[in-house]
Amino acid sequence: MNKLDNIDTVLDKYVPAEELAEVKRILYGYNQGKPVAVVPVTEEGSKNAKEFNFDLKAFKFTAAAEEMRAPRIVKIGLIQHSITHSTTDTIAAQVPAALPGPQYKI
Residue 37: which domain range? Predict the structure, then answer.
């Protein structure tokens, strides 16, 4: 079996557009009644992702206006580690392999 990079690649390739929209709604939810907006990644970000072998994605979430405070921009960064060892390996082998290495910091 080939290694999959991510589930979105498989869904985009094999699920028809109408069903794909519903699958993504179920998996990722909606924001203010609409699909979450994808934001283009900068050229530098794409270059770093390719060089250091990680996926980089950006999304925009909106919020309803509030009565008591002005709108503001909030930025959030998330990192998900990859599993490099088999899940049947010992915990002692899996944990060090899952921790960020000294090669680079995002």
Answer: 7-98
Total of domains in the chain: 1
Q: Is residue 65, in this structure, part of any structural domain at all?
A: yes
Structural domain contains residue 2:
no
What does the pLDDT look like over 40-74, one tens digit per residue? Answer: 999 999 999 899 888 888 999 899 999 999 999 88
* Residue 106: inside a domain: no
| Residues 78-92 pLDDT 10s | 877 677 788 899 988
From the list 79, 55, 77, 78, the residue with the least C-alpha distance to 5 is 55
C-alpha distances in angstroms, 103 versus 28, 52, 69? 31, 9, 42
The Cα–Cα gap between 37 and 58 comes to: 9
Helix axes 7-14, 17-28, angle to 10 degrees: 150
| Model pTM above 0.85 | no
